[in-house]
Amino acid sequence: MPRCANDWRSLLDPESLNTWLSGIDENRPDLASQLEESLRTLRIREDHQLPPPDPWVTWLFLGGRGAGKTYAGAAWLIEQATAGARLALVGPTFHDVREVMIEGPSGLKALSLPDEHPRWEASRRRLVWPNGATAYAFSAEDPDSLRGPQFHAAWADEFCAWPKPGDTLAMLRFGLRLGADPRLVVTTTPKPHRALKVLMAEPGVSLTRAGTSANAGNLAPAFLRTLESLYGGTRLAAQELDGVIVETDGGLFRAEDLARCRAARPARLDRVVVAVDPPATAGGDACGIVVVGRRDDRAFVLADETARGLSPAGWAARAVAAARAWSADALVAEANQGGDMVRSVLAQADPPCRVKLVRASVGKRARAEPVAALYEQGRVLHCGSFVALEEELMALGSGDLEHSPDRADALVWAVSELMLGPAQRPRLRAL
């Protein structure tokens, strides 16, 4: 059966490897030589390259260049091939499927052991393992080619580079109808495409994020250092190295400002508030819950407790728990959607501080503009990694959000409460 690096943990130390190889030297010296070379160069998958432990239908791996996405996808697919599965490989073009997913240094052939290498049948555009498992190659340039075939599992690579991502993904999913648990892995460097945002919001999708630095041990030593010196703090670096979805047109919050807003949490804070952006319906948008503190003339983002799919009592309890954990002096909640109901459910959760209802009288962009100015001034700092929050901030004003920016809305309310009173509002001048 096909095996990959994780099946060979016990063989990777020299003593065990030599003992095992000596058992086959007499009968197959050629094979022993190949196996020795392959086993010594195989590396164990990093934690971010392993499938999520929780049940999932689609595993979406968003990573920077060199983060190990291809290795993760190929290793997972080899595991599916051990049962003789019928598989699908989809890349931006046929060339990408063969040169990256199959023949590449982290592809399916490289990760299979020498005596279990799959063979490529060019005429049928398929990869066949000795146990009968078969992986068919498809180009995302031709979604209709996925009509008819059926599979147990599929690996889709560089989804954001597909010319018709939505159409192709739909056709692929219609074919995942074999076995008891058909699943899909999608690996890609993220770009601000609607199709990706729709995919991220789907139920049953488990998301893994990894920047290039997560796989630094397997990259050329100067690679990250050189790129960081050239592009560090730019939108290009955020997208290609950090694996962050970066909006480019009309966004209020710049990647450069977000890249330099990192800071340690102060030992003491003057005030802490928990802002809540309630969902319109229980099963719809997420409930934005963001914790922000103030020290002197700066705001510090402390936590993002945003959650999806909670009942009113559920999100109220979560917000109150955050207020207790951070010793907040106020719960600031938007009341446009729920009015007094918002105050009522928060009160029932027994908050440790006062509840302040706020109502939006202008649009999201207008509310966010003064907060974006504070980021530009370096007066809002993030005490941790808040990737999903930063993606929503960069999307504000772009007109390309597929869902309500709940995290970003909550942050805007929190920072406004702490920093944008009459005496603190930043002065903006039209040029």
From TrEMBL:
It comes from the Bacteria. Keywords: Viral release from host cell. InterPro entries: P-loop_NTPase (IPR027417), Terminase_6C (IPR035421). This is DNA-packaging protein. It comes from Caulobacter segnis. Residues 275-417 form the Terminase large subunit gp17-like C-terminal domain.
